[in-house]
Amino acid sequence: MKLRRHELHELTGAYALDALPGPELDRFERHLGHCPPCGNEVRGFRETATQLAVAVAADPPATLKWRVLAAVRVTRQLPPEVAGGRRPGRRGWVPRLATGLAAAGVAVAVLLAVLLGVTRHQLDQARAQNRAVAAVLAAPDARLATRATSAGGVATVVAAQSRRALIISTSGLPTLTGGKVYELWFLAPSGARRAGLLPAGKGGKTPPLLASGLLPGDSVALTVEPAGGTNQPTTKPIVVVPLR
Amino acid sequence: MTTPPGSGAAAQPVPDPAPGQDEDLAALLGHVARGDEAAFEAVYDRLARPVYGLIRKVVRDPAQSEEVAQEVLLEIWRTATRFDASRGSAMTWVMTIAHRRAIDRVRSVTAESQREQKAGQLLPPDPDTVADTVASRLDAERVRRCLSSLTELQRESVTLAYYGGYSYPQVAAVLGAALGTIKTRIRDGLIRMRDCLGVSW
Question: What is the phi-psi region of residue A230: left when phi exceeds 0, alpha when psi lies from -120 to 50, beta otherwise?
Answer without folding.
Answer: beta
